[in-house]
Amino acid sequence: MHDFLRTFFDLGEILDVLPALLTEGLRNTLLIAALAIVFGVVAGVLLAVLLLSRRRLVRLPARIYVDVFRGLPAIVTVSLVGVGLPAAGLRPFGREPLGYAVLAIALISAAYSAEIFRSGIQAVPAGQLHAARSLGMPYLTAMRVVVVPQGVRNVLPALAGQFIIDVKESALVYLLGLGFGQRELYFIAQERQAATYNSSALVAAGLCYLLLTIPLTYAVNRLDRRMREGRRFTSAPAPVASVPAKAVV
After folding, report:
1. 94 Ramachandran zone, left/alpha/beta (phi>0; psi -120 to 50)
2. Which residues contact 199 (CB under 8 A, 6 or more apart)?
3. Against a cut of 0.85, is the pTM above it?
4. What is the largest distance, in Å, between two alpha-carbon atoms of the chain?
């Protein structure tokens, strides 16, 4: 029991690594996740619109993208983007691994977000699009102004759940060998664990991830509950006022 506690809950190890986790690791984890989420949302909406196109040549590239990046393990995508692109001479971020880290997580997030947005948009009654088109709106304008905003409201809980996944998958970018000042939570903890052969640093990093994901999880559950209650309220039939019977003369 003593060895177990010393390996996973060594207070000295936790206190030694905690400043680096909070000042460097947490900041970079949030930076990677936030940038990936922004890209994923924007690209996901565009991909969802393409997936819903009636033209096969428009749908096919978007479908291939979504299927590929949803089908590949995240660790493979991170390796292909962060290691493969620079090795092939494609260096949009130069030699800075942080840019490739964000790109890898963002590509995965966009694929999953696209399916989330697609399902939300399809849940919008078709009459909304037909009504907008009947007013003379082009297809893309009708989608942007009328359909997409309603679809986004339908999928807010699922989309927030994807944000939690993005935060957790940011741990995979340790494969890219981030430099000092760019290390995220897992990279710092893994370096410490390799140097001391003690897993307390990983436990400390896990606690930092929980500080991010647990509040988000409860926020998602609360949002989902409020939206479901709102749908029940709006879908309830309006009460019919009773009309008093006329007196018989």
Report:
1. left
2. 7, 8, 193
3. no
4. 100
Residue 204 is which amino acid? A
In the numeric block, the tokens 């999953």 are attached to 112
Token output for 190: 């893994």
Full pLDDT tens readout for the chain, 249 residues: 878 888 888 888 999 999 999 999 999 999 999 999 999 999 998 999 899 888 889 899 999 999 999 999 999 999 999 889 888 888 888 888 888 999 999 999 999 999 999 988 888 887 887 888 888 888 778 877 888 788 777 787 788 888 889 999 988 888 887 777 788 999 999 999 988 889 999 999 999 999 988 888 888 778 777 767 766 555 544 444 444 444 443
Q: Which among 199, 197, 106, 213 has a CA at the least distance from the CA of 161?
A: 213
